[in-house]
Records
---
Amino acid sequence: MRIAIIGTGITGLTAAFKLSQKGHQITIFEKENYLGGLAAGFKKKDWSWHLEYFFHHLFTSDKAAKKLITELDLSKKLFFQRPKTSIYFRGKIAPFDSLCSLLNFPFLSFPQKIRTGLTTAYLRLTNNWQKLEKTTASQWLSKFYGQKVYQILWEPLLTGKFGEQKNQISMAWFWARIKKRSSRLGYLEGGFQILIDKLVKEIKRNQGKIILNHEIKKLKDLGKNFDKIIITTPTEKFFKTKLPKMFGAISLILELKEKFFADGTYWLNINNANFPFVAVVEHTNFTNPKHYANHHLLYVGGYYPQSHRYFKMNKKQILKEFLPYLQKINPNLSPITYRLSRNLYAQPIVSVNYSQLIPPFKTPISNVYLANMQMVYPWDRGINYAIEIGEKIADEIAKN
């Protein structure tokens, strides 16, 4: 079959790889001048590794990603290690990534710590997300963790991620975050760009074609040249949908001479709703700075409504707005260089009973299929689930 794929994110590339393996004629269309979507990376002249525009890592439970990495003969590049995760609250950084750190967490009483541990254990053990999706995260968390714990640990993160939509978010979304998270995180030597490059190489080896700088705005733009079409871009770009609108993401990447987190923290959750970002991630506290000219790399990120003013501001304006808050954490911050990445379609707004809103792969339009991050529910967006849904759509197409 002649198959067109719209979008070269991990889902599109995985589907193209799997279908081209089966002998189908694949053509992929990408509106940008680079491949990989949200997982794409860049490399400066004095760096030996790529860096993603938006921070990424794998969990030990990410079976689809590990399987594909092995299939592409990249398993020797995959490594897992345990970085440090902390919380910023009331002007202090406190580790929060183990039972020991929970017991030492200074902002909860001992009974609150016990309740937090038991409730988190329940979420790790249960598989009944269908029941959880019937209620909101804010209702469930405040009830079972307790109002005080909710206000300290979870409400600031829900606010930071979903803003005014925080009270609409399904508890199944939160469950997935707890269920799949692992203390050890994975990364590829060279960055995830090597996964993208290998997929592209294999697609081309299988006679697949990739066309960059070519935006498909209407399906009729493809004419009658293809037997089937797979759309991997956001649903609303082509169809009227019942799915809630998505949030966009801002990722400010700072290059520093000195460490930002002297205590070795990799991931810092900002549990202060007044901050304009929700996470600060020091990539080089997880990977070795030697791969980046011995400089330290810091992501500062947040999720915002698509109409937010940040999507109209340049990187200098964003830095000016973020800098005073970063200097509250480290007054000595002084970036060498910085760059800004943004994407309007980065985070599905997962509402209550979201499973009832997800469309099937096959659309009402003959021979047109849909597979994107809005459909990986109950899991959250990420490389593993982009691969998983790419494989599923490839199987769906191959059997029809």
---
Amino acid sequence: MSVVSIVFALIIMLSIFGGANFYVARRIYGWLSIFLPQINAKIYIGAYILLIFITILGFARSVLPIPVTVKNIFSWISSYWIGIFAFLVMLFLIADLVLLLGGFVKVIPKPMPSNIRFYSGLIVLALTAVTVGYGAYNATQIKHVSYDIDISLSEEMKIVMIADLHLGTTNNESNLAKIVQGINSLNPDIVCIVGDIFNDDYFAIRNPDAASALLKSINATHGVYAVLGNHDAGRTLNEMMAFLERSDIKLLNDEYVIIDERLVLLGRLDPSPIGGFGDLQRKETADILAEIGTSLPIVVMEHTPTVINEYGRETDLILAGHTHRGQIIPGNLITKAMYTVDYGHYQKDSDNPHVIVTSGVGTWGTPLRVGTNNEIVNIRLR
């Protein structure tokens, strides 16, 4: 992508973001001016601009030369506000559409009475509060889902898969003990962590020693394996890899291991790392499969399901994450349109591998889950 294309895309995104903020700010002010006629417009505008500024700083915190405590405060404010803002935009748009249609069919009189505008705004704000509250609660819950997959194993084996921990983002570390407990309760033979263990910056983790100790306490008969996702990259890659090593997690960077002479576990580098993987380069899929040279079933760990078309009958099962299943509605509709499979079990036909895509066990961007769940995946291979 050229510099001109990047600048153009950035201008478009900032224009949409700015326009959406102007729309929300104006709608909230219109409601407040009915509820509180004495509201000072300059103070309101200043407060809203400050909120936007903190939101931007929160997402750029990793490069800011400010104390960690301040970074964490910015992160908390910005991550929650992004979720609140998304629902405000959607619900205000729906409310305005209803009011427009109501006026068109003459159910709502013209000019529109102030009490109708007031109650429509109140409904939007109340629904946003309820939705965000539910989303924050649901993001602390860990569901279990199970799949039985027949790949002609000589003996049954249980894989527990998780993805998208995003350690370093708001609230995700607080769920780590619950996640580890959930994994251990399933008595896995293998644990597969399919990418986005971190969230771009290793130093955003609030207590890396505690997080490492928890991950080290995962019990799996044949070990814990991981691959790097698109967020497990950049300037702190070395620190991320050292963290995984001291957590007793075997990182497979376009490498494979044979598990108990029963199956091959292949871990792939993500094709689109944010900030790069340094000297590590993703191999051609055909080349790495040719290196394996065994008739044992092959299980592939790929962070993203965008690459499943690179595999055929030579592989048996692909494990992926990345999509979060959209995380909050209507994001699930977007991911369903973007990916061949954005969630669950999929097999194109008998000549192609099984694919299991998880919605992830953590959140990204905003610490909310609405219409989707954090999950641990239990896979029984036969």
